[in-house]
Amino acid sequence: MSGERILVVEDEEEIQELVRYNLAKQGYSVSCARSGEEALRKARFDSPDLVVLDLMLPGLDGLKVCAILKQDSTTQDTPIVMLTAKGEESDIVRGLELGADDYITKPFSPRVLIARIRAVLRRRVAEPAGEMAVIRIHELVIHPGRHEVLVDGESVELTSTEFRVLHVLARRPSWVLTRVQISEAVHGMDYPVTDRSVDVQIVALRKKLGEAGRYIETVRGVGYKFKE
Q1: Which residues make beta-bridge pairs with 104?
Q2: Per-residue pLDDT at 102 exceeds 90
Q3: Complete domains list, the chain, with CATH
């Protein structure tokens, strides 16, 4: 029995109960919210280990809730798995850009949902010591333990996903990584990667890093590399 605390944010009663029941059956401690405002209150008060977040909510929608949670220092490291209607690719991309860790499309299999949640929670466990080493390359300092990036001594705010993408590339300078390799390193195996989702993270990274963004190079037809 796992015991991790999961906040399920879903306004449709039947879906909320389906998710709650299946997670509780696996030993998770589950709390629920039916609106964006209630979700924010519970996320800040209960400090869940993971949030399952529907995008279509009364009041604040799921994307706004995701953005607020990722901007709040008390909740920014809480993993978020989005629930979205099938085919809402623009919302999926936007959610990943905001820092969501994964997404599930409706209708969904409870077994797939549980497997995805387990995968996200596994990634939250402390990484091996070698992966936690501070990286100093060019004018960048990347501190995995603090989840901190400095450019010329100035702090750069990144989402959790953007940070992991940068970390994956910077740990292997001059290595060319495909989009699939980047996605698997960041999200785990069997993540439904699209060229668009990885490219969105790279574009956002380059913009936030400013001049240092030029070190992330596109290798046409292959993927990306961090210039040594």
Answers
A1: 83
A2: no
A3: 5-124 (3.40.50.2300), 129-226 (1.10.10.10)
